[in-house]
C-alpha cells in the first residue's frame, strides 16, 4: 500500500508534494495550546459568555490514535447515543475527517464549505468532526456552523490532546483526512481547504460529484 499524500495550500506549495508536506509540518504557524499533562485552562467566547474547561492528566480522555485504527471518545449529540467513535464503525462508506478547535480561526473559515458539501452528500459520504488540541468548548465550532449533526469526537493523548492529528503527521490546525470505504487513508490535507478544493478531492478520491 502506498503512502497517503500530504496536501497543503500553505505558501503556494503544490497539493500532494511530499517535501511541501514535510515543510508544512515543521513550519506551519498557529497557536500552541497548553500541555494537558500539566493541566490546561482554556476559554472561548460566544458573545458575552465565556466557557472554561480544565483538564489534567487524571481526567484527560483516553483512546486509540492509530492512523487506520483510531477509537476516540464521542462528544456532543453523538455521545447521547454512543460512547466511542471508531474508524471501523464507518466501513462501507467514504469518510472525510475534519480536525478543528474552538480557538482556530482557520477552522472558522473553512467549516461553512464543509457544511455545504456535507449537506449535499448525506448518505453518500460520511463526515466526522474531531476536536483536537482543544482547550475550550469542543462544541463551539460545530454548533456555530450547524455541523453538530456530524459524528463528533475528541482527540486524545499526544502533546496537547492531539494524538491522532500528530499520528497523521500534521501538528497544525485545521487538518482534513480522506479515507476510503475500507478505512484506508488516502490523503491528508494540511491547512484550510476551500469548498472548491473539497469538492475536487471528493470527486478524485471517491468518484462522487458534489
Walk me through what this model shows:
With 210 residues, the protein is an alpha/beta fold. The protein has a domain of 146 residues: Glutaredoxin, CATH 3.40.30. 23% of the residues lie in helices and 24% in strands. The chain is built from five helices and ten strands. A six-stranded mixed sheet has the order 1-10-9-6-7-8. Strands 2-3 form a two-stranded antiparallel sheet. Strand 2 and strand 3 form a beta hairpin. Helix 2 packs across helix 5. The longest helix is centred in the middle third of the chain and has 16 residues. The chain starts with a strand and ends with a helix.
- As residue ranges, the low-confidence spans are 8-58
Number of helices: 5
Annotation, overall tally of beta strands: 10
Give the CATH architecture of the domain at 61-206.
Answer: 3-Layer(aba) Sandwich
Shape: globular
Annotated CATH topology of the domain at 61-206? Glutaredoxin
